[in-house]
Design brief:
35% of the residues lie in helices and 15% in strands. β7, α10 and β8 form a beta-alpha-beta unit. The radius of gyration is 24 Å and the shape is globular.
């Protein structure tokens, strides 16, 4: 037994059956030892960033730990973006890196990087293993830290000589799960008192509540509280429920943003009130007293002033708040929300463009399908238009906004759930950052990934901001003169593709794309200039949202369609 073999033995003992990675010199002993552990599937990606995003997709879709590994130096530093992404979105992740031998650390040896120093701010914890006998204990501890409490990434760095050294320690199996944190009775009592006094209550559900969907749904229905799900919280409350108001924030719904602005009591569960949700903080929920439920004490009161803080597991807190519920009956508030929801319904895209194309795709989703996006206009359109009935069916890069996330994350999710269709919606810009992962689909015969590229020949979201706030000076955002033929690119990897360039062509292309028995590509060529609305400009309050594209207004400044703006 060597240090490297003890690593695989420990991972296997903890039920880790899939690892995404890319080998190299400083982690070669670990890859050599892998040949003795066939129960662990290693997925050879084509870039370390692809590997860590695939591990994130695996974790987000299942709630289980995602694991990735890389060699030292550039291999390890290529994981940095994914670690930051996992930290921002609270993804349970274990990253294992090789390093130069212990006696070379600090000498600027070939492919040496201080990866623990580099990643200290973007991991829950990290380690350098100095003694091979400590390796199983450290890995077991890293797994516990990554998966307990508020999940997050943990990095374990293993010098090459530690991997090769004889192991004389004790293998460590999985430890019992820590009990879920119960809410303090006095905090629940204070929250109940506020809720019972509310005339305009609103519930906001964040990504930290994805494991508490049943309890939160019961809570919202018992009280009859209008419910909003954040970008990371989509699926945490069923979209078909009449109480659901959509997503809040910069590209949130009319109903969600105005309900927040007019609420008198707002309860946020498993969310951190980030800037894309709040808009101008001093005017966020300007009339409301706020109840914040979160596991992480550091998040409570960090951004918005909180009247009642409940530090607890989301499910436990929701269950406690359901007891003694008083169904909320305020017809004026209900009528006002219905009017806002009608304004949202009126904005369904009906003319050819990116929104029309995204809606055509997401309307074909089945309840168990997984939808993964990259970052940009297509991401916000997907969040606005898709309807999720279950948690962990929506995977996106929220906090960090990582272009290149969508495709490898969709592969990781597909490999975690081979019986489910994993649909990836990406832009022509972000897709090219990790398009080499086509090879991963081919190598492992992953047949349940459907990739849709919304091709507008631009970095669309940057172009939108330049149009609105920079005098239409389109600086370094045009891609149309150098984009590849995406169908030929897919064909080079033996992936079948279809293209649609009009509303008339799209239905048949979608039918063929979805019916194909293997993974496939759909490219939808859409007009270059397209905006995503509603939109709250940076620095504005939620109630100052731009509801529809300003270019649709007539010369008097009113909406050509008669829709209301900024009311």
């Amino acid at each position: 037994m060597t240090g490297a073999k003890s690593l695989w033995a420990t991972l296997a003992a903890h039920g880790i059956d899939t690892v995404f990675g890319y080998p190299g010199g400083a982690i070669m002993p670990v890859y050599d030892a892998l040949t003795y552990y066939p129960e662990v599937r290693h997925v050879l990606c084509r870039h370390e960033q692809g590997a860590i995003h695939a591990a994130e997709g695996f974790a987000k879709a299942t709630g289980r730990l995602g694991v990735c590994m890389a060699t030292s130096g550039p291999g390890a530093t290529n994981l940095v973006t994914g670690l930051a992404d996992a930290m921002m979105d609270s993804v349970p992740l274990l990253a294992i890196t090789g390093n130069v031998a212990r006696h070379l650390i600090g000498t600027d040896a070939f492919q040496e990087a201080d990866i623990t120093g580099i990643t200290l701010p973007i991991t829950k914890h990290n380690y350098v293993v100095q003694d091979p006998d400590d390796l199983p204990r450290i890995v077991a501890e890293a797994i516990r830290i990554a998966t307990s409490g508020r999940p997050g990434p943990v990095l374990v760095d293993i010098p090459k000589d530690v991997q090769m050294a004889a192991f004389g320690g004790v293998l460590v199996g999985p430890q019992p799960e820590a009990p879920k944190m119960e809410p303090q009775p006095e905090a629940i009592a204070a929250a109940l008192e506020l809720l019972k006094s509310a005339k305009r209550p609103v519930l906001m559900v964040g990504g930290g509540a994805q494991g508490a969907t049943a309890e939160i749904t019961e809570f919202a229905r018992a009280w009859q509280i209008p419910t909003i799900t954040t970008l990371m919280g989509l699926g945490g409350f069923p979209a078909s429920d009449p109480l659901w108001l959509g997503m809040p924030g910069m590209h949130g719904s009319v109903a969600a943003n105005h309900a927040i602005s007019e609420a008198d009591v707002l309860i946020g569960i498993g969310m951190r009130f980030d800037d894309r949700v709040t808009g101008r903080v001093k005017d966020f929920a300007r009339h409301a007293q706020i109840i914040h439920v979160d596991l992480d004490a550091a998040e409570i009161g960090k951004i918005v002033h909180t009247q009642v803080s409940v530090r607890a597991d989301a499910g436990r807190a929701a269950a406690a708040l359901t007891k003694g519920a008083v169904p909320y009956l305020h017809p004026e508030w209900t009528a006002q929300i219905a009017e806002w929801k009608a304004r949202d319904a009126a904005q369904t895209p009906e003319t050819w463009g990116a929104g029309y194309a995204v809606k055509a795709v997401v309307d074909r989703l089945h309840p168990d399908d997984i939808l993964t996006t990259d970052v940009g206009q297509h991401q916000m359109l997907s969040a606005q238009l898709a309807r999720f009935e279950k948690p962990r069916r929506w995977l996106t890069s929220g906090g960090l906004g990582t272009m290149g996330f969508g495709f490898p994350a969709g592969i990781g999710a597909a490999m975690a759930e081979p019986g489910v269709t994993s649909i990836v919606i990406a832009g022509d810009g972000g897709f090219q950052m990790t398009s080499q992962e086509f090879a991963t689909l081919t190598k492992y015969s992953v047949n349940n990934v459907k990739i849709c590229i919304i091709n507008n020949s631009y970095l669309g979201m940057v172009r939108q901001w330049q149009e609105l706030f920079h005098g239409k000076r389109y600086s370094e955002v045009y891609l149309g003169d150098s984009n590849p033929d995406f169908l030929k690119l897919a064909d080079a990897y033996n992936i079948q593709g279809w293209r649609a360039s009009s509303a008339e062509e799209l239905p048949a292309a979608i039918d063929a794309w979805l019916a194909h028995p293997r993974s496939a590509l759909l490219e939808v060529v859409v007009p270059q200039e397209h905006g995503v609305f509603p939109m709250v400009p940076a620095g504005a309050a939620l109630y100052e949202m731009i509801e529809t594209d300003p270019s649709s207004r007539d010369s008097s400044g009113s909406e050509a369609s008669g829709e209301k703006v900024n009311q």
